[in-house]
Design brief:
382 residues; alpha/beta; eight-stranded parallel sheet; 12 strands
Amino acid sequence: MSLKDCYNFEDFRKLAKKNLPSPIFHYIDGGADDESTLKRNTESFSKCDLIPNILASVGEPDLSVEVFGQKIKMPLFLSPTAMQRLYHHDGDKASARAAEKFGTFYSMSTMATSSIEEIANISSGPKLFQLYIHKDQALTDNLIDRCKSAGFKGLCLTVDTVVAGNRERDHRTGFTTPPKLTLKSLMSFAAHPKWTLNYLLHEKFKLANVAHFTNKGSSIAKGVMEYINEQYDPAMSWKDAEYCIKRWQGPFALKGLMSVEDAKKAVDIGASAIMLSNHGGRQLDGSRSPFDQLPAIVDAVGGKIEIIVDGGIRRGTHVLKALALGATACSFGKGFLFALGAGGQPGVEMFLHRLREEIRRDMILMGCKSIKELNPSKIAYR
């Protein structure tokens, strides 16, 4: 199987599984506890159906939306995901360049393996930075100020990771950052010589945005759950979110928000967007899927704040269903990470191309000339 044989999420996943050592593949693939929320994130889209209109003279549909003050060419962008250097030696650089090519947002994680400045230098596309509140306030401030200087267009604060979810796959595989050689992991690395050589011969692994504050996770191997519990502030509050909004003074989202009550508070404190997310099912297992929660959030704050659905996106029809129910845009993580592991920048570009073509084709089949024509009348629940 090669990149040219990849047509959908599952194809890219299979090729990534073939290319990546087991601990790294399962870090992308896994969720918390029984992984019930991980599965439900995608399954929730199958509860309802699209209702097309015919003879609508669509022509070429307009796929653009405005989010974080930027017009993007498709209603889907890359979610912030950590440690992309592990999935391909070009890491965040490959993802940022691919997103720029498709006129959509690349999002950078605090735990990226390229720095804010490096990505700003190689991509002029719209960029979003994802912030964690660290116990060290100076580190949080440093990240916000550097994003301002580097011309990032938006900031999102992840609010669902004050303590690490119980990711049992990572316990079983012994996943750490940087990868730690054990008898079990050594066998997996040896079975993937291309990945291992690329990892060893290219730029050294580091958490580039925080390495000057802490060497843990960069030169001292740490489990991700260990790192989160040690470095992030478990007492994070609404005051911290307000502080970040005031320091940033630009488009700002809360990522990981799920309740109606919290959505209303986000409006009150001046956030410009909310990203409905359960961290890809990696935090609180048994939590609601973003798509299932979307109608209640739209009823409460629709029109007052941008609403982004993040979680479970596998197909263009998933994006259309979310937009029809009132989402401003969607974002996805696992899919483009599997594409990155499958083939680097060409892999991410190919998957973005596949999804854009699905959205375009499905818009024509729906009889919709623009995203604005997608509304609840286009959806029926069984």
